[in-house]
Amino acid sequence: MMLGAWVVVVSALVLILPGALVGRRMNLPWPVAVAAGPPITFALVSILTVLYSIVGFEWNGVSALVGLVFAVGGAWIYSALLLTRWGRRLAPAPADDGEPRVGRTATVRVAAGLGLGGLVIAVTCIRPIATTAFAGLGNISQVWDSLWHASSLRWIHETGIGSAMRMGELMNYDTQGFNYYPNTWHALGALLFPLTGADPVELYNTYSPAVLAVTVPLGVASLAYWFARHRYDVDSAAFIAGAAGALSALFPSLPYVEVQLTSVPNAVGVSLAPVAAVLVMSVVSDRSRVLPAALAVAGVTATHPSGLIVVGVLVGLWWLCEGLWRPVAGRLRDLAALGVTAALTLILIAPVVLGTIRVADTNELPFFDFREDTIGVLDGLVKGAFNGTIPLELDHFPVWSLIAVTLLGLIALAWLRCWAGLAGWLVFALVTANAMVSLGPLSAPLGVIGGYFYNSPHRLTFVVAILSAAAAGVALGALALGVAGLVRRRAGSDQTDGREPPSEASSTRARWVVAATYVVLLAMIAGAAVVRYPPNAQIASKERGGKYVGPDDLAAYEWLAAQPDAQDVLVLNNLDQGTGWLYPVTGVTPMFPFYRANEFSERQRDLFWGVSEIGADPKIDQIMRDMNVHYVIDSPPSYWEFQRGMPDPARGHQGDPFLALRQNGAPGLTEVFRRGDAVIYRVNDLVYPPPAP
Question: What average pLDDT does the segment 391-405 reach?
């Protein structure tokens, strides 16, 4: 647990501080700069890794610091340009509306709520793995995507290649064909190896929830603050935002389902989307925020493109429901500020756009269909609205307390007249329901939005849960403020004649009443977190039991890594079995480091399907020598059912090409290790004849 705590602290600092420094240098107030820190940090990582790849620089701690220095310098130039005549003309200082700025009281309130929410998330996700899972923090998640994430962390650290445009070099050892993957989360995490001393698996298991412990409460709090500012002053809105940030840790989808199903980059990008959206909305009143807002949106998009959709929907609904009817500098000028922000964002995310277009033909995820024939439209609507999608509907739905506070939150949004927030919740609730059951004529437009989330109900539920948690935080925060006001009145704190301001003593008592109320509210949320710990911890730590990669596999990996000739050779493995974990665990190079490989080469295909002919087929043997393969590892079962059993192409069944090796062996392979189902073979003299004397 000490390692987990250290990774959480380091992750939070590395995630927040670089972006906060750049944001502050671009004239954002410190509280806003800190809130915008994570998405701006990810934007810097995205830009720097692509540029470094082009010029041939390695991505590491030193080059990241150098890049940060240049970014701060660029931010200083930007702020200096704003002070010029043209700068003042294009981005005049915002008019003083008499509202106080975010001060110490508001900052402390938000920080307390975010700290509690982050602590609950980190403990709930990390503790069960450290204390109950096999291998502790070195435990292997059995979910498909986790192998990619852990391998990416190690690969970026070892190679210094952090560009999202070069991830094909990891996915396919032989062809190194092009593959785009939004890997800013991985590139930032790779910087933590020397700072934490964790190995790749330990880092993956702790860094995943550590980042979400920052981004989820922050995203929910940002949204709640925006909601609350429709009626409340700065300090009261901060009260509500802090409560919402703490409350976010209670929702099973925030982020426990995403940790279980290992869709962490998506969750990070989406959870930061509200931060970027609120910053974009503010450019109409302060045009100097155009560049930091564009950077924040670019960072969200580079972390995962689905975050851009959330930003677009929130900002679009805000403009239709509020911005269009209450312009700040005039509709055209406000729209121009938003348009410039969008244009700058498009420039900054050019690698994301180009990469996504290049892999569009091979990306099957948008066409996945998760609809269920067993549920009706009403059932789908209820589950989509109140966090009842797979996997939650199996054992963790309904949670009536969370449904109740969500409903209260929706009522609170209507009372605040925050129609954009209410519409945003409704839109994503409908999109989520549509991913489970067709909603008739609405199915097509809702499916367009859902396609950017792979039409995956659990990913869409995550968005709905963010909006629900923010709304629920508004409801509880508003009730708490109402209670505090009642206590003040009963205690005589506000007794004045109506013509004179309250006395200093009265104001002091009022502040203490509100502070005490806030402490009680956070204590109640902490108590609820204790109650919710068992189910949420179970959700977060599920799929950790060794179904595909277990203790026997780890023993095989460690044995192989200890062989003196294993580090400089290639290991033939069955990608369908998840034996690519050999790489993140030990650093030994498997032919297939992931469950899939882009652009299979002919010789890869021949080896994979001809593994039982090693030593008997001269063509196979020559490929083995050409690729320097000296070991073969086999560890059933394969991940999907269609990858198991005897291959039967005539009936369209892929099967397992290693089954023949398992049953009959191969002349060119000698078994050298066996534990359980994990077997390692050494390629023998039939393939590599000893040199003539």
Answer: 90
Q: β-pairing, 570-573 with 589-590?
A: parallel
**What backbone phi and psi angles, to 5 degrees, belong to 183?**
-115, 25
Read off the amino acid at residue 298.
Answer: A
Token pair belonging to 631: 């070991």
- Containing 158, the helix (H) or strand (E) segment is helix 144-159
Cβ atoms of 460 and 257 closer than 8 Å? no
Residue 571 is inside which H or E element, if any? strand 570-573
Q: Which of 611, 625, 19 is nearest to 302 (CA)?
A: 19
Closest CA to 576 of 558, 596, 557, 598: 596
What's the Cα-to-Cα distance from 543 to each of 152, 257, 669, rounded to whole Å?
20, 11, 33
R_g of the chain computed on alpha carbons: 27
Contacts 24+ apart (CB under 8 A), 69-73: 71/18, 71/22, 71/44, 72/21, 72/22, 72/25
Residue range 265-294, pLDDT digits in tens: 999 999 999 999 999 999 999 999 999 999
pTM of the model: 0.94
- Whether 49 contacts 184, CB under 8 Å: yes
673: three-class secondary structure by DSSP? strand
Sign of CA dihedral 611, 615, 617, 622: positive
DSSP character for 514?
A: H
Q: Which residue has the tokens 């004397």?
A: 693
**Cβ neighbourhood burial of 429 (10 Å; 0-12, 13-18, 19+):** buried
Residue where the block lists tokens 């460690």? 558
First to last CA, the chain: 57
Tens-place pLDDT, residues 20-48 = 999 999 999 999 999 999 999 999 999 99
Compute the distance between CA of residue 196 and CA of residue 87 in angstroms, rounded to an integer: 43
Residue whose token pair is 């077997």: 679
DSSP 3-state percent helix, strand, coil across the chain (nearest 5)? 65, 5, 30
CA distance 689 to 441: 68
Task: Provide φ and ψ at 653, rounded to 5°.
Answer: -105, 120
Listed residue (214, 270, 265, 224) closest to 468, CA to CA? 224
Full DSSP string of 624-648: HHHTTEEEEEE-PPPSSGGGSSS-B
Sequence letter at residue 364: E
What residues have CB less than 8 Å from 307, skipping those under 6 apart? 266, 269, 270, 272, 273, 276, 300, 301
Cα 616 to Cα 604, 610, 632, 665, 687: the distances in Å are 17, 10, 16, 11, 9
Structure tokens at 427: 């839109």
Select from 104, 280, 67 the least CA-distant residue to 187: 67
The SS3 assignment for 370 reads coil
